[in-house]
């Protein structure tokens, strides 16, 4: 498995984050049940905007892709909108 992420500061108030990673078992070591998970991959990105010293908003989109030993693949998208107060 592994994970990577990057942050880019577009302005003093706006930042962009991208991330991704995977967890991949050695399939030979897994029970041969077709419903067993062989690999999970996750990737996504978000934007965060700081309105002032204490208020931050953000929007994020990500996806988890799960591969099974039997060959099936499942994609799970995830979308978020958030507001935060820093104190």
Structure notes:
The structure is a single chain. By secondary structure, the chain is an all-beta fold. It has no helices and 5 strands. The chain has a 5-stranded antiparallel β-sheet with strand order 1-2-3-4-5, with no helix packed on it. Strand 4 and strand 5 form a beta hairpin. It is elongated, with a radius of gyration of 18 Å. It starts with a strand and ends with a strand.
Oligomer: single chain
Number of DSSP E strands:
5
Give helix and strand order, one letter per element, not per position: EEEEE
Helical percentage: under 10%
Which segments are poorly predicted (pLDDT under 50) over 5 or more consecutive residues? none
Query: Rg to the nearest angstrom?
Result: 18 Å
Helix/strand-derived class? mainly beta
Arrangement of strands in the largest sheet: 1-2-3-4-5
Spatial shape? elongated
Helix count? 0
Largest sheet: 5 strands, antiparallel
Give the percentage of residues in beta strands.
over 45%
Question: Taking all residues together, what is the mean pLDDT?
Answer: 91
| Distance from first to last alpha carbon | 35 Å
């Amino acid at each position: 498995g592994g994970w990577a992420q990057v942050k880019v500061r577009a302005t003093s108030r706006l930042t962009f984050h991208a991330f991704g990673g995977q967890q991949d078992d050695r399939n030979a070591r897994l029970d041969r049940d077709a419903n067993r998970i062989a690999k999970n991959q996750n990737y996504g990105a978000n934007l965060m905007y700081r309105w002032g010293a204490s208020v931050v908003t953000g929007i994020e989109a990500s996806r988890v892709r799960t591969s099974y030993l039997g060959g099936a693949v499942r994609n799970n998208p995830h979308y978020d909108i958030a507001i935060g107060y820093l104190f």
